[in-house]
């Protein structure tokens, strides 16, 4: 029997899985260790809701399964759930006042798949309101504070967004892994900001059923975890065809964990020259070069490629995503769930309810979406943006047709910034955080962010790998090469506890 | 293209969001910042390009035309702010 580590919540998900099966500790013990860690970390505001009783009840079931030798793939592993996933009889807010008090009578397919495989729910994680944001500062329930700090400073930093609670909780060892969602970079940018691994799979890989919708043609669920292997284990359970989502892909889910050790020998990695954006910090440029060198040293061929429409992805996104959001968020009308504010008549009730229930960023995006879809502007904005989306996708198709297996880019244009630091900037400055990630959503491709080093202030920086459609396996294989070469990031000590 | 104060009010009404007088000017600035950012799309030659309608090629599946769900009105209205006899209540719409 192996010895019990000092803190069970410091284990990786794979180590915890193996330890549970070896009976080194029980599911109840590791659930309790996490419940205690979560309770000590409220200063980070990562959890919107803690569900300790449910966690212990699920852990007891897991202990019985383990004792019977009938362990399911995630048996007894404590996870956090982004509060965009509907969870049966557990409040789901999407980070918005307009959904305060909402208790779904159903379970999202992705979270259902995790419980089916034996995982344990610790609670619901904070996020930007309706997943609209890059810093977790648009949450109606307050910002998440990153567990990371600049060297020699106590200034609070953002964990990124919109899956800021997920990324902070994983980095602070408040769960072994977490669910997240990504519409323009909301898994990969917070993963990069917190030294964690996040993968947005191919559009259609995970069911969107039961996930509060933002922009339906861009939204995808995926995991955030502390290692590439952990992310692979989680995605294998989350993914799969679901008849309840007509856009979910009817493809078998490969053994992602088996792909982790596959290496990159014989693969061709593309470096897109258009990602060398003006004003990119030298540190990011160096890290990118370093990543290419690591992959080359591991046996990959590295070639320069061109994705000529890259610069148009972000502006086109800021037409497509708000347009879809304005339509999706029409359902919050004070009639079926959540907040209701009385008005003069029914239209007044709608207008007062939505004015009181939505935050600034959400209102802004609904209004932009309403404008670009309105009579006289639809062709000039929306149809043009969808044509540009075709061109962006074609760029990738041509690169892949040329024999490239995956594309390497920086994950973000900078390291994490301070809470409130961008408050006075115009909204576009915040949007620029997603400049390297948003193309991937526009083209429906898989993308992974892997920690690759620290900047000179001691903050994590990540690299992104972009794959062919439904080839997440290559991303796990290449991601592991980067993780091995960079060395696992030393996560911050628990100053918050 | 940019929006004036009157257009901001019109969009807000279309979006069913009440905006106060003091909110119009800041919203106008923010919306115009976004619109000026997306202006650069006008430079792209999109002649002969089909607009994207599906990000991954897939045939829409159809299922058997059978009732597979339902019969739980109480759960449907469970989260509604105002209900009566399993109906949603709204302010009077027909005089």
From TrEMBL, chain A:
Keyword terms of this UniProt record: ATP-binding, Ligase, Nucleotide-binding, Protein biosynthesis
EC number: 6.3.5.7
Residue ranges occupied by any Amidase domain in the UniProt entry: 32-475
Domain of life: Bacteria
Known function: Allows the formation of correctly charged Gln-tRNA(Gln) through the transamidation of misacylated Glu-tRNA(Gln) in organisms which lack glutaminyl-tRNA synthetase. The reaction takes place in the presence of glutamine and ATP through an activated gamma-phospho-Glu-tRNA(Gln). Hydrolyzes indole-3-acetamide (IAM) into indole-3-acetic acid (IAA).
Subunit structure of this chain's protein: Heterotrimer of A, B and C subunits.
Name listed for the protein in its UniProt record: Glutamyl-tRNA(Gln) amidotransferase subunit A
Organism whose genome encodes this protein: Methylobacterium crusticola
UniProt lineage: Bacteria, Pseudomonadati, Pseudomonadota, Alphaproteobacteria, Hyphomicrobiales
Gene name of the encoded protein: gatA_4
From TrEMBL, chain B:
UniProt xrefs under SUPFAM superfamilies: Glu-tRNAGln amidotransferase C subunit
Assigned EC number: 6.3.5.-
Top EC class of this enzyme: ligase
Gene3D superfamilies membership: Glu-tRNAGln amidotransferase C subunit, N-terminal domain
Record keywords: ATP-binding, Ligase, Nucleotide-binding, Protein biosynthesis
Metal-binding keyword on record: no
Catalysed conversion reaction: L-aspartyl-tRNA(Asn) + L-glutamine + ATP + H2O = L-asparaginyl-tRNA(Asn) + L-glutamate + ADP + phosphate + 2 H(+); L-glutamyl-tRNA(Gln) + L-glutamine + ATP + H2O = L-glutaminyl-tRNA(Gln) + L-glutamate + ADP + phosphate + H(+)
Record-linked Pfam families: GatC (PF02686)
Function: Allows the formation of correctly charged Asn-tRNA(Asn) or Gln-tRNA(Gln) through the transamidation of misacylated Asp-tRNA(Asn) or Glu-tRNA(Gln) in organisms which lack either or both of asparaginyl-tRNA or glutaminyl-tRNA synthetases. The reaction takes place in the presence of glutamine and ATP through an activated phospho-Asp-tRNA(Asn) or phospho-Glu-tRNA(Gln).
Protein family (similarity comment): Belongs to the GatC family.
Subunit structure and binding partners: Heterotrimer of A, B and C subunits.
Record-given protein name: Aspartyl/glutamyl-tRNA(Asn/Gln) amidotransferase subunit C
Organism: Methylobacterium crusticola
Taxonomic lineage: Bacteria, Pseudomonadati, Pseudomonadota, Alphaproteobacteria, Hyphomicrobiales
Gene that specifies this protein: gatC
């Amino acid at each position: 029997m192996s010895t019990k580590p000092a803190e069970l919540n410091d284990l990786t998900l794979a180590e915890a899985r193996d330890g549970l099966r070896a009976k080194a500790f029980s599911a109840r013990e590791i659930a309790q260790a996490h419940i205690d860690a979560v309770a000590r970390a409220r200063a980070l505001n990562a959890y919107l809701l803690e569900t300790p009783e449910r966690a212990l009840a699920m852990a007891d079931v897991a202990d019985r399964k383990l004792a019977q030798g009938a362990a399911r793939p995630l048996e007894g592993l404590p996870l956090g759930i982004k509060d965009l996933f509907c969870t049966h009889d557990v409040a789901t807010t999407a980070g918005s006042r307009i959904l305060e008090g909402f208790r779904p009578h159903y379970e999202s397919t992705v979270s259902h798949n995790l419980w089916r495989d034996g995982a344990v729910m610790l609670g619901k994680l904070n996020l930007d309101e309706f997943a609209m944001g890059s810093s977790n500062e648009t949450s109606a329930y307050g910002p998440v504070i990153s567990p990371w700090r600049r060297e020699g400073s106590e200034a609070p930093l953002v964990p990124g967004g919109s899956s800021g609670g997920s990324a902070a909780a994983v980095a602070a060892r408040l769960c072994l892994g977490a669910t997240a969602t990504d519409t323009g970079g909301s898994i990969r940018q917070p993963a990069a900001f917190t030294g964690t691994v996040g993968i947005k799979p191919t559009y259609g890989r995970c069911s969107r059923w039961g996930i509060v919708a933002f922009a339906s043609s861009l939204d995808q669920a995926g995991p955030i975890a502390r290692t590439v292997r952990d992310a692979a284990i989680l995605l294998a359970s989350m993914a799969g065809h679901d008849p309840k989502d007509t856009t979910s892909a009817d493809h078998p889910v490969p053994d992602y964990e088996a792909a982790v050790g596959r290496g990159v020998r014989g693969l061709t990695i593309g470096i897109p020259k258009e990602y060398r954006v003006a004003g990119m910090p030298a540190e990011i440029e160096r890290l990118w070069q370093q990543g290419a060198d690591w992959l080359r040293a591991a046996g990959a061929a590295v070639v320069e490629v061109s994705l000529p429409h890259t610069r148009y992805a972000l502006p086109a996104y800021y037409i497509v995503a708000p347009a879809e959001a304005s339509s999706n968020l029409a359902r919050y009308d004070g009639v079926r769930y959540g907040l209701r504010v009385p008005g003069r008549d029914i239209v007044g009730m709608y207008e007062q309810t939505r004015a009181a229930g939505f935050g600034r960023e959400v209102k802004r995006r609904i209004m932009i979406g309403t404008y670009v879809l309105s009579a006289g502007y639809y062709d000039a904005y929306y149809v043009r943006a969808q044509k540009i989306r075709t061109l962006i996708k074609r760029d990738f198709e041509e690169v892949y047709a040329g024999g490239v297996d995956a594309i390497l880019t920086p994950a973000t244009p900078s390291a994490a910034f301070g809470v409130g630091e961008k408050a006075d900037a115009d909204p576009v400055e915040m949007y620029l955080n997603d400049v390297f990630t948003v193309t991937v959503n526009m083209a429906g491709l898989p993308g992974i962010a892997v920690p690759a080093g620290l900047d000179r202030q001691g903050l994590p920086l990540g690299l992104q790998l972009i794959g062919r459609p439904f080839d997440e396996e290559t991303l796990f294989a290449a991601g592991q090469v980067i993780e091995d070469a960079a060395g696992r990031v030393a996560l911050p000590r628990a100053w918050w506890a | 293209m940019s929006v004036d104060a009157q257009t901001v009010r019109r969009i807000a009404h279309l979006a069913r969001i009440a905006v106060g007088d003091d909110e119009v000017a800041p919203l106008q600035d923010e919306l115009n910042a976004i619109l000026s950012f997306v202006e650069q799309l006008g430079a792209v030659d999109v002649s002969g390009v089909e607009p994207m309608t599906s990000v991954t090629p897939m045939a829409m599946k159809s299922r058997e035309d059978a009732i597979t769900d339902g019969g739980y009105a109480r759960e449907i209205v469970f989260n509604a702010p105002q209900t009566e006899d399993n109906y949603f209540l709204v302010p009077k719409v027909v005089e």
